[in-house]
Amino acid sequence: MTPVFKNKKIKEIIEYYKLPWALSYVTGIAHWDLETYMPSNGAGMRGEALAKISSLRQKIFLDKNFVNLIHQAERSKTLSDVEGGVVRILLRSLKYYEKLPPSFVEEFEKLTSTATVVWRNAKDTNDFKLFAPYLSKIFDMNRQMAEYLSYTKSPYDALLDQYEEGLTSKDVESFFTEIKDPLKNILSQITHSKKYSKVLPLENAKYDKEKLSEVNDKILKLFWSGFGKNFRMDISAHPFTTSFANTDTRITTWYHDRDFARSVLATVHEFGHALYDLQCDPALQMTPIQGGSSLVIHESQSRFWENFVGRSRNFIEYFLNDFQKAVGRKLSVEDVYAYFNKVSPSMLRVEADEVTYHFHIMLRFEIEKGIIEGGLKIKDLPEIWNSKMKEYLGITPKTDSDGVLQDIHWSGGSVGYFPTYSLGTFLGAQWEKEIVDYGLAIGEYGKMEKWLKDHIHKYGSTYTLQDLLTKNKMKFDPSVNLNYLRKKYAKIYGF
Questions:
Q1: Which value, in Å, is the radius of gyration of the alpha carbons in the chain?
Q2: Which residues are catalytic?
Q3: Which of 378, 387, 394, 422 has the largest count of CB atoms under 10 Å?
Q4: Confidence of residue 239 (pLDDT cuts 50, 70, 90)
Q5: Which ranges of 192-312 does DSSP label H, i.e. alpha helix?
Q6: Span 408-433, pLDDT tens digits
Q7: Coil, strand or helix: which one is 241?
Q8: How many CB atoms neighbour CB 156 within 10 A?
Q9: Per-residue confidence band for 2, with pLDDT thresholds at 50, 70 and 90
């Protein structure tokens, strides 16, 4: 392969970066283990170890010679796209490390490593008060982080920017304003149709966990020939994806007593994330632009696979016999298709359908922004959460485990992540349109993956969201997903 990095300063940067990269690699494995196999009593010591590694990484990153190299490269007028991407990403990291005190970085890592295990226990026992002190501290530290990083209008903007470069509260509010009423109208037409049902029989169908695990493995083997070699799946309290390299990418899923779509769609969703990292150009490994840094782009991949592949008729037809074995009875394609594509307000974001999903995100956005800006209090969260669920979806959680405790994100310190799910979902619909317009059918998995690799994945974090859209001669257009939803559900529900 022709060398990707030709600039002398960039080559020096890449060589030095291998050290902080290696620390991130080991940290990633420790976090993966924390959420999968680590005994719960190990949280304290794991937090201590990760805190020290975070502090060490910051120190190494802020080495004067390395910082000078970054600024020297920044002034170069002849950088290629990938070289410019390296500088852009490093400048973002530099801002983070230069403005946050080492003691803060260390304390935050220690807190979130412990809080993740506390959250898991709180969710299992439906005990918000157990998690509340940790959550309060996490939001306090996020607010403090925003002050360190600086912002123009809202402290929440500084946090949003950590997950999507340049994203602001105003951007998110404008987006939600544009989609809220159209989604309400689609939902109203569905709930008033003669075919509407709050609950379908398959939602309550028990299944054999071992057999469904075999189905999930079969799905991943169909999607990716390297499954089991450079890609694996485990079980966790909340599905997630982590990638150490394109030769070592890992996802998790979950299993319950019934409602097998929860597990299947979670698996397909996480595969979308994994594929992005698996198909990143090998030449970008061990560099700052390895994998995807834009969470909107990343979520557009996971939501594309979940909604357009996992909920598709041909996917259901292909795995129908396997689903039948898992639930232990005969199923029809139509019944499973209706089940996978049912629209009805539900308690859990990760189980939400394509229409109501975004109301779950609006709720979280308003809560996060309210707490960071000081208008909402942690102690009131269960009541606030339930009130907003009633307002947006007309339902109220019976337990905090199905309400304010349902997501893992806050326990890991991620405040500002949630809006990328909705933005990514709408962008995912545009990728689907591009793929179909290109002449590919959803279900031609290998050809789809190649298209995604050539247009998105191989570039890693080289481009910003806007630059990647421009490169693909696109612009973000929410009407694409709204039109898709109207057309799809008018056909299913007959309105």
A1: 22
A2: 270
A3: 422
A4: very high
A5: 209-223, 261-278, 295-304
A6: 999 999 999 999 999 999 999 999 99
A7: strand
A8: 24
A9: low
Contact status, residue 308 vs residue 268, Cβ threshold 8 Å: no
The tokens 């020297």 sit on which residue? 72
Within 13 Å of residue 186, how many CA atoms lie on the same side as its CB? 27
Q: Give the residue carrying structure tokens 């309550």.
A: 204
Contact status, residue 118 vs residue 134, Cβ threshold 8 Å: yes
Provide the whole-model pTM.
Answer: 0.96
Cβ-based neighbour number of residue 337 at 10 Å: 18
Q: What is the pLDDT of residue 3?
A: 62
Whether the Cβ atoms of residue 97 and residue 61 lie closer than 8 Å to each other: yes
Other CB atoms within a 10 A radius of the CB of residue 345 amount to: 18
**CA distances from residue 341 to 92, 254, 302, 491 in whole angstroms, order as listed:** 40, 20, 17, 12
Return the SS3 of 231: strand
Distance between CA atoms of residues 329 and 205, nearest Å: 10
Tokens of 180: 């809220």
| Per-residue pLDDT tens digits for 332-342 | 999 999 999 99
**One-letter identity of residue 102:** P
Please report, for the chain, the start and end positions of each structural domain, with discontinuous segments joined by +.
8-148, 169-493
Q: Does domain 169-493 have CATH number 3.40.50.300?
A: no
Confidence of residue 306 (pLDDT cuts 50, 70, 90): very high
Task: Check whether 251 has a pLDDT greater than 70.
Answer: yes
How would you classify the pairing of strands 248-253 and 241-245?
antiparallel
**How many CB atoms within 10 Å of residue 98?**
12
Farthest-apart Cα atoms in the chain, separation: 69
Cα separation, 397 vs 407, in Å, equals 14
